[in-house]
Description:
The protein is mostly helical. It is built from 17 helices and two strands.
Amino acid sequence: xxxxxxxxxxxxxxxxxxxxxxxxxxxxxxxxxxxxxxxxxxxxxxxxxxxxxxxxxxxxxxxxxxxxxxxxxxxxxxxxxxxxxxxxxxxxxxxxxxxxxxxxxxxxxxxxxxxxxxxxxxxxxxxxxxxxxxxxxxxxxxxxxxxxxxxxxxxxxxxxxxxxxxxxxxxxxxxxxxxxxxxxxxxxxxxxxxxxxxxxxxxxxxxxxxxxxxxxxxxxxxxxxxxxxxxxxxxxxxxxxxxxxxxxxxxxxxxxxxxxxxxxxxxxxxxxxxxxxxxxxxxxxxxxxxxxxxxxxxxxxxxxxxxxxxxxxxxxxxxxxxxxxxxxxxxxxxxxxxxxxxxxxxxxxxxxxxxxxxxxxxxxxxxxxxxxxxxxxxxxxxxxxxxxxxxxxxxxxxxxxxxxxxxxxx
Length: 410
């Protein structure tokens, strides 16, 4: 089975996919980067990822995957809605990008075996992204925490928004914690990832990422408590520390959570609810309700939608919403049927995080970090490939003398 082991260039392919999903909008950087240049780099990374994955898998060997099958079906409403060019030629370009993205995941599925290989790739690549954020904060603190974003941490070297940074930090913190509990990494190595990532998460003041981290870890560790003493100890200490922190630092936590917003602004989710109401009230034809308006920039009337389900409804219609829901049902159902294990716990964490974040973040219907998170979950839930039976050579035939080959007795 040596030929089926995950080759090292697969990590490079995963890194290129991560680069592609970083996006091209965000805060102003220390060195101004034209958006066209950023788009050229991100799209070039996707083409390179697909090409390298194809070279690594020339025989086109793939694993059966309900997750990837549903993503492939999602291309149908995307293309149908984008074909009339109501959203411009950019919609067809986004369809091609999604097709390349899904195609690359199909090519990588050959190495999905239920192990934590892709978890490690995920942590490494996003930790490198966070290193650029930290470097930007050291080089130019003013650019990294501008007043435009209320003093929240942004990407000063690459245009990244606070929710993006918070998402990356929360995901790798959760995965690193689970690897420690599962005995797949040592504590010093995990602390090297967890501590700086936690600092960056706090500096972003991202409520969705923080809640997603807490909820996802609660679900994941809860799935391990019956079989892992380390998980039970960690869960007990975490509950105790959370209770003490809630009492001692109640006012500070409330101030951090509200981010200086008024109760009215907080209740309508920083204006998101107004955009959602307007999107749902907008008139649509039957075709637009079923297939959507075509892939766009996840905005409505120039304002971000910031909800994956409404963004999918707007761009890919009710069919798209049904397919995305089927993705969660398929992954969640398989995770519940698997016996307790580290791989299952990591998958549950990623599924839970993406499900919670989908309420205030968009991205489940297009090439995005959220689809990469769910792809890692799918790789964790895949059954290991059956080992090929070893061929046993035929035993050597004994040479029988000619005089002994006759049965007659003289």
